[in-house]
């Protein structure tokens, strides 16, 4: 995706109080009114009037090394993993066609557990000091926890039930996401078609500050990377994947985002440029294959059994998760 793509914008002339609701922007509620957090400077503004910019083409970023093919088709992806409840609600829009709601797009997400481990990669150490993967954090070791597909409804919305992600050096807390079109649900997963958008979803630091003080997160100790130092998020707010979050650690969070994609184009996350994308010098990141990591630096000390330095300084010499 080029900078010209990112700046190619469509405007919806939606006036009145219903504009925000039509776009799915900030219409969620938390389970305990008045007790939630709010990102500084992002309080509810009056509904946008005609001429307001309501939908942009979201830039793709790195896929990361831990995506696995064949993720289950399901809404609840927790598989018993313990953590603060989180509902992820994404609204997908067809940006080149007046930002119309995109029905039947397949949204795929995956992220680490409360201790920073990814399913299918139990030897990939998340940095800091942490118990072994799969111990007391929520059931047996699994290759599929915290991964899944959902298709969008008539309003372009896909929703997942999960937990707030843990942290892993050198990244700020994040969720990976891909939006696919043209494929089909088969064999319990989604296959075929094309990947139109590869993104990462982010949270303001204040949510992690609250979450990581609770069990089981607090059993993972060390210095986590803050959003401003993240190796993928470089600012840009919502169009770069910063989620709008409501709720609290006692009742759980709801995180929402509206994304604009071009369903006619393949966008696998290898592109560079634009806010939130990889620096131009970064190579595309692919999932490691057995034996392929021998003799080279690996993420979080994966397969080495030795935790990496508890510092974001390792970002320059490791793969980006």
Provide structural commentary:
It contains three helices and nine strands, in the order ααβββββββαββ. The relative contact order is 0.23. The chain has one domain (1-31, 49-321): Protocatechuate 3,4-Dioxygenase, subunit A, CATH 2.60.130. It is mainly β and 321 residues long. Strands 1, 2, 5, 8 and 9 form a five-stranded mixed β-sheet that branches.
Can you lay out the helices and strands and say which pair or pack?
Layout: H1 3-7, H2 19-23, E1 85-94, E2 100-101, E3 106-110, E4 147-151, E5 157-163, E6 174-186, E7 189-202, H3 205-211, E8 244-248, E9 252-261
Parallel strand pairs: 1-9
Antiparallel strand pairs: 1-2, 1-5, 3-4, 3-6, 6-7, 8-9
Region (Disordered): 261-321
Protein name: Intradiol ring-cleavage dioxygenase
GO molecular function: dioxygenase activity
Notable features of this structure?
Protocatechuate 3,4-Dioxygenase, subunit A; 5-stranded mixed sheet; 22% strand; disordered N terminus; dioxygenase
- CATH topology grouping: Protocatechuate 3,4-Dioxygenase, subunit A
Structural class: mainly beta
CATH architecture label: Sandwich
Whole-number mean pLDDT: 74
Strand coverage percent: 15-25%
Number of strands: 9
What order do the helices and strands follow?
HHEEEEEEEHEE
Helical content stands at under 10%
Which blocks of ≥5 consecutive residues have pLDDT under 50?
A: 1-53, 271-319
- Which word captures the global form? globular
Q: What is the gyration radius calculated from CA atoms? A: 19 Å
What is the assigned CATH homologous superfamily? Answer: Aromatic compound dioxygenase
How far apart, in Å, are the first and last alpha carbons? 21 Å
Please indicate the count of domains: 1
Largest sheet: 5 strands, mixed
Number of helices: 3
- Reading off the top of the CATH hierarchy, the class is best stated as Mainly Beta
InterPro entries: Intradiol_dOase_core, TAT_signal
Region (Disordered): 261-321
Keywords: Dioxygenase, Oxidoreductase
GO molecular function: dioxygenase activity
């Amino acid at each position: 995706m080029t900078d010209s793509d990112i700046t190619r914008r469509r405007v919806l002339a939606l006036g009145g109080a219903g504009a925000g609701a039509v776009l799915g922007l900030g219409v969620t509620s938390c389970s305990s009114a008045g007790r939630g957090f709010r990102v500084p400077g992002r309080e509810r503004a009056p509904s946008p009037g005609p001429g307001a910019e309501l939908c942009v083409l979201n830039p793709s970023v790195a896929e990361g090394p831990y995506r696995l093919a064949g993720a289950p088709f399901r809404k609840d992806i927790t598989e018993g993993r313990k953590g603060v409840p989180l509902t992820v609600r994404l609204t997908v829009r067809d940006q080149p066609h007046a930002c119309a709601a995109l029905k039947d797009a397949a949204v795929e997400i995956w992220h680490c557990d409360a201790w920073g481990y990814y399913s299918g990669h139990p030897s990939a150490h998340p940095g800091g000091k942490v118990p072994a993967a799969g111990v007391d954090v929520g059931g047996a070791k699994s290759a599929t926890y915290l991964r899944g597909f959902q298709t969008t409804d008539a309003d372009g919305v896909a929703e997942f039930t999960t937990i707030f992600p843990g942290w892993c050096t050198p990244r700020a807390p994040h969720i990976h996401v891909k939006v696919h079109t043209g494929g089909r649900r088969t064999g319990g997963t989604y296959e075929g078609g094309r990947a139109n958008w590869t993104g990462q979803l982010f949270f303001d630091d204040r949510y992690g500050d609250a979450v990581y003080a609770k069990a089981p997160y607090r059993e993972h100790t060390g210095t986590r990377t803050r959003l401003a130092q993240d190796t993928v998020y470089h600012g840009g707010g919502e169009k770069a994947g910063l989620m709008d979050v409501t709720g609290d650690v006692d009742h759980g969070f709801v995180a929402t985002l509206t994304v604009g994609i071009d369903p006619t184009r393949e966008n696998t996350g290898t592109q560079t440029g634009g806010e939130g994308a990889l620096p131009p010098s970064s190579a595309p990141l692919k999932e490691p294959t057995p034996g392929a990591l021998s003799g080279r630096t690996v993420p979080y000390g994966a397969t080495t059994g030795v935790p990496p330095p508890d510092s974001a300084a390792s970002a320059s010499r490791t793969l980006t998760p």
